[in-house]
Structure formats: structure tokens, C-alpha cells
Design goal:
heterodimer; A: alpha+beta; Heat Shock Protein 90; two-stranded antiparallel ribbon; 5 helices; B: 5-stranded parallel beta sheet; globular
């Protein structure tokens, strides 16, 4: 099946830009904490030079804070690296569990900004599918974005992965405002193009307040 | 004169360390990670400057800026953010922010901005008092 490349390209660039901006913002926040910790250590050194006693606990606290922020930046950059490399191959066998983990990681800042908790317990076993990794990430983000906007008062989105008839399924639950009252068309044009490209299917189960995304095994051809 | 500052940011570690450094420099600092609490503090206290992050959970920093300026137009708001965008900076200035600094920022620069904000606020308050006095004299006919 041929993809609608105009819509896919536009949506893809928008997705890539949004995630890149969020990543840069996160890195800057971590750098700001490191900058203040380094500044405080310098302040304390100047005091020590003047013979003013310095509490070792203040030093330990700041070195601990720097280590914590370095780990945070390392995690962010690891995600950024995986995300950037997802464009490398148009068709690849990937682990869906790892892909959902990556999208959840990339979306965590957006969730925090909306006061939404993303509850995701990755299944212990990998779930391999052949697909276009970048398109899948884009589609997962659009589903998650919709789920967060319809999460209602619960302010929690649970993500569950299971195997489906012709591939795999990712479920987003509970959605409190179905049918959608956000005024957004659903699925929007980019979602439709991604679903067609990935041979996927979206289903809203009103009874269970659930959105489920089924992904086929055969990817889009160029 | 001691500057009284409110720091609003959702990064707890950042708030802790920056406020510690400011206190060491004799600045009277309060902090909050919540936009809602910031508005309550603005209602209850008088600050020389508010240092505000642009990206806040629940309420966007620009929305918070607008709400603060609506409540207390004389308050001096400095935006300090990792959200590096010229457009957002211009928008913030239009809504009444006095300055826009990018994270990570130099504390010396931030402190200078706070001092400038304090001086500016004093001028505004003096002008307001003068206007009030003129009004009283006019109404009472003294």
C-alpha cells in the first residue's frame, strides 16, 4: 500500500520538531540545576578560603544533585538518540515494548504539563513486529496526545500492550470524555495517513472507556 | 534595602539551590512549584520581583503572568526559562514581563535584573501614592 507522503511528511516533521523542542527544554532545565549547584559550590569555596566553616552536608547535597542531573540528562540523550535513529530504516523489526517505552519517555514532559500521569508497566517479554519505526512512534504519540486530552478528572492514562490477531495492540485507558468533547476531529488527517501506512486500526470502546491501536505486521512501501 | 523575591518553577532542585544562593546574598526569597500557590502568595504578600518559569504544569507561564499582572499591575515579573524561543519572549514582554532570561542563567545577571525591577516597582508605587494623595486633596477640597 502506498502512503500519503505529503500528510505523512508534514506530520512527521511536526512530531520531530515538537519532540526535539521538548528535549532541548528538558536538557536546559537540567543544565540550570547543575549551573546553580556549581555556583553554590563556588560560593562555599570562597567562604572556606575566608576561613568561614562550611558544613560538609551542604557539599554532599550539591554533589548528589549534580550526579542526579547528569543521570537525568543521560536518560534524555539516550531517548533522543533512539528517537533520531528511528528514521534510519523505513522498515525494521522492532520491539513494540521498547518503542512504547520510548514514546512514553518522550511524552513525559507533555504529560506533566497537563498534570496527567502516564501509567505504563512494560510487559516482561519483547513483542517483535515489522514496521516503520518512526511512523509508529508518531502514531503512538498522536494516540497518547488524544488520550491525555480526554483523560478527564482521573488525570491518568494507562498504557497496555497485548498481541492481536495480525500483530499487536496498544490500549489507552480510561478515557473519560468519549465521545470526544474536545472539539477535535478524530481521527485527524495525519492519524488516518499513519494508520493507512502502518496498516493499523483504531477502535474506541465506549463501554470500557478505551482507545485501542492495532498494528499490522506489513509496513508501508515507498 | 533587601529585595523580596518570589521564585516560581516546577523544578524543585533548581528552586532549592537558587534560593539558597540568593539567601546567602541577603535576598528575601520565597519559592513555589505551583502556579495556583503563586497567585495566593501574590494576593497575600508584596514582592519586589517575581522570577517565573514559562513552562509550568496546569497553568502556562504566560497565563500565570497575565493573572499576576491583572491582580497586581505594579508587580515586576522576570521570566527565567529553558523554553528558548524569541517569539515567546516577545509575547511575554507584551503581557508585561520586565525581562526574559534563558536558563541556565548567571546569578549575577539575575540579581542585577531583580535590583532594577525593585527600583522600577518603587517608582510605580511612589507614583500611585502621589496620584492617591492628589485625588484625596481634590475630593476633600483642601
Amino acid at each position: 500500500m502506498k502512503g500519503n507522503w505529503e500528510v505523512l511528511g508534514g506530520a512527521g516533521l511536526q512530531f520531530f520538531g515538537k519532540m526535539s523542542a521538548s528535549i532541548s527544554h528538558e536538557i536546559k532545565n537540567a543544565l540550570a540545576v547543575i549551573n546553580e549547584s556549581a555556583g553554590l559550590l563556588e560560593d562555599l569555596s570562597l567562604r572556606a578560603e575566608k576561613g568561614i566553616p562550611v558544613d560538609p552536608e551542604r557539599l554532599k547535597k550539591q554533589s548528589g544533585s549534580i550526579v542526579k542531573q547528569v543521570r537525568r540528562v543521560d536518560d534524555i540523550i539516550q531517548n533522543m538518540n533512539k528517537f533520531a535513529h528511528s528514521i534510519d530504516d523505513p522498515v525494521k523489526t522492532i520491539d513494540l515494548v521498547q518503542t512504547v517505552t520510548l514514546v512514553v519517555g518522550l511524552s513525559s514532559r507533555f504529560a506533566a504539563m497537563r498534570g496527567v500521569v502516564l501509567a505504563y508497566q512494560p510487559p516482561p517479554k519483547p513483542m517483535m513486529i515489522q514496521t516503520n519505526p518512526f511512523f509508529l512512534e508518531n502514531l503512538l504519540w498522536l494516540c497518547l496526545d488524544f488520550a491525555m486530552s480526554t483523560a478527564g478528572t482521573a488525570k491518568t492514562v494507562n498504557l497496555l500492550i497485548d498481541s492481536a490477531e495480525r500483530g499487536a495492540r496498544v490500549r489507552f485507558t480510561p478515557l473519560d470524555r468519549i465521545p470526544d468533547t474536545t472539539g477535535r476531529e478524530f481521527p485527524e488527517e495525519p492519524m488516518k495517513a499513519l494508520l493507512a501506512a502502518l496498516q493499523g486500526n483504531l477502535n474506541i470502546d465506549e463501554g470500557n472507556h478505551e482507545l485501542s491501536l492495532s498494528i499490522g505486521a506489513a509496513p508501508v512501501e515507498r | 534595602m533587601t529585595e523580596k523575591v518570589l521564585l516560581v518553577d516546577d523544578e524543585v532542585d533548581f528552586l532549592d539551590t537558587l534560593s539558597e544562593r540568593m539567601k546567602d546574598r541577603g535576598i528575601n526569597v520565597s519559592t513555589t512549584t505551583s502556579a495556583e500557590e503563586a497567585l495566593k502568595k501574590v494576593d497575600a504578600e508584596s514582592y519586589d520581583a517575581i522570577v517565573l518559569d514559562l513552562m509550568m504544569p496546569e497553568m502556562d507561564g504566560l497565563e500565570l503572568l497575565k493573572a499576576i499582572k491583572k491582580k497586581r499591575p505594579e508587580l515586576q515579573v522576570i521570566l527565567l526559562t529553558g523554553y528558548a524561543s524569541v517569539g515567546k519572549g516577545i509575547e511575554a514582554m507584551k503581557f508585561g514581563a520586565v525581562d526574559f532570561l534563558e536558563k541556565p542563567a548567571d546569578l549575577k545577571v539575575l540579581t542585577e535584573k531583580i535590583k532594577e525591577a525593585q527600583a522600577h516597582k518603587m517608582l510605580i508605587v511612589e507614583k500611585q501614592v502621589e496620584e492617591k494623595m492628589k485625588n484625596i486633596i481634590r475630593v476633600k477640597g483642601w
